[in-house]
Amino acid sequence: MPDTPSAPVTDVASSSRSVAISRALAVGSLVGLIVLGLLWEMWLAPLRPGGSWLVLKVLPLTLPLTGLLKNRMYTYRWMSLVVWLYFTEGVVRAWSDKGLSAALAGIEVFLCLTLFVAVTMHIRTRLKAAGQEAVDADKLRHAAAIGAASDPIPPSKP
């Protein structure tokens, strides 16, 4: 069954759209976690009046921001692991804190889940696209090795 020229174009378009959406979700939820952490520990519901040293928890979140903005696959991969530390903190504080702090912890849990889903969607989409490109390149190499035409439609005979 010959491949139609429009099929890869559609796959590439949907793949790049998924990558763009997942990147926007990942960056947005990461920025949301940074802003939430700063507001939470400095003004909204700090552990001590006037702010607490727990605000330093947002510093590690600033490191992957550059990698996500530059679309680095390695950053997406390790961010999918680091996010669980903040998720755990959110769950513990949602369970143990009262009032506004518990609500902010719930927001942190939501942002962590959003970040994880976005990062894993980004990784899967990019790996699938890279795999398809590798398969297509392998088909072309094989066709060249056996002396076949690179065009899947055989030439018409006169």
From TrEMBL:
TM stretches of this protein: 24-45, 51-69, 76-96, 102-123
Keyword entries, A-Z: Membrane, Transmembrane, Transmembrane helix
Keyword GTP-binding on entry: no
Superkingdom, taxonomy of origin: Bacteria
Official protein name in the record: DUF2069 domain-containing protein
Organism: Hydrogenophaga crassostreae
Phylogenetic lineage: Bacteria, Pseudomonadati, Pseudomonadota, Betaproteobacteria, Burkholderiales
